[in-house]
Design goal:
Elements lengths: L2 H4 L5 H6 L9 H6 L11 E10 L3 E10 L7 E7 L13 H11 L2 E5 L11 H13 L8 E11 L1 H16 L6 E5 L10 H5 L8 H12 L25 E6 L5 H13 L4 E6 L6 H4 L4 H18 L2
Parallel strand pairs: 3-4, 3-5, 5-6, 7-8
Antiparallel strand pairs: 1-2, 2-4
Helix pairs in contact: 4-11, 5-6
Length: 310
């Protein structure tokens, strides 16, 4: 059965409306694509700060918090945006980050980490970890509860979230209470059945994934790759924070996500996992009004709210 016949009926319109992407040739035009700005919530205040990382580099971080705060320390989420490690900006997730703030009564920090190929690995994870360390610094004036800090992201952002959980464990902090790597980009080897299966030009597919990994790693993928670049390479998944993840059945990351979830569970990590039939990569953003999209989004927003407010 071909790809379109397997797509959930309510999601087919999204495939037709998604602009085809062919990496690396379309990289510049894709970066220039301007999304319609999301309507801002009156209940959330958005500000920006600049952090010094990697010597002289000044990294923007976007901060989302309740518009009205009573002085009480709030839980916090470090959210890393997606885009195959080569695209994206924190503002593209404004509406989602606002939803986390409202549902979990939390602070969200999203770093504008450096992108490949101009800045290959380890730039993105080093920037993201620097943002996490800053988030957990009591001197940053964010007034967050250090016992309730989570990491999350989708796609490449999910890969960074999984890598952050590994790095925080290995470096001895910050202590994380939860991780949410949604349909994460975590395996540079691209040898699973689903990575070969999804080739349709209007969704994130094998060709784009291969190109993005090569740009991120600064050379051919599949060699001796750090688990901080590709968390599936990690030998030890024990002592990591509880996890939530999901993936569409027609996502090239389906099998690597399922394998990672299985290994987390076998390592004694509590994990919740959802597989959405007929869903392709990022379907809940492509067709946000579809019933399956609303369920997926509500599922992970509510999971974050529960984790940050036990």
């Amino acid at each position: 059965m071909d790809f379109m016949n397997r797509v959930a009926p309510e999601l087919k319109q999204g495939v037709a409306e998604l602009p085809p992407l062919h990496l690396p040739g379309d990289l510049d035009s894709a970066r220039g694509y301007i999304q319609c700005p999301a309507e801002k919530s009156e209940h959330v205040r958005i500000t920006e700060r600049s952090l010094s990382v990697a010597g002289s580099y000044q990294m923007l971080v976007r901060i989302y918090e309740p518009a009205q705060r009573n002085g009480k320390a709030l839980p916090a989420l470090l959210w890393t945006h997606g885009g195959g490690y080569v695209l994206g900006h924190p503002s593209g997730d404004d509406a989602l980050c606002e939803s986390f703030v409202i549902a979990a009564n939390c602070v969200v920090v999203s770093p504008d980490y450096r992108l490949a190929p101009e800045h290959p690995f380890p730039a993105a994870i080093e920037d993201s970890y620097a943002a996490l360390v800053w988030l957990a610094d009591i001197n940053n004036a964010l007034n967050v509860d250090l016992a309730r800090i989570a990491v999350g992201g989708a796609s490449a952002g999910g890969g960074l979230a999984a890598a952050l959980a590994l790095m925080a464990r290995d470096k001895g902090g910050p202590v994380l209470c939860f991780q949410m790597p949604l349909y994460p980009m975590i395996d540079d080897r691209n040898d699973t059945l689903s990575s070969h299966e999804i080739t349709h030009s209007s969704v994130w597919n094998r060709a784009n994934n291969l190109a993005a990994w090569e740009m991120y790693l600064g050379g051919p993928a599949g060699g001796e790759t750090s688990p901080y670049a590709a968390p599936s390479r990690a030998d030890n998944l024990s002592d990591l924070p509880p996890a939530y993840t999901c993936v569409g059945q027609l996502d090239p990351f389906r099998d690597e996500t399922i394998e990672y979830v299985t290994r987390l569970a076998q390592a004694g990590v509590d994990v919740e996992f959802h597989l959405y039939p007929g869903g392709y990569h990022g379907f809940e953003h492509a067709v946000p009004t579809a019933g399956i999209s609303r369920r997926a989004r509500e599922d992970y927003i509510n999971a974050m709210a529960r984790a940050l407010n036990p």
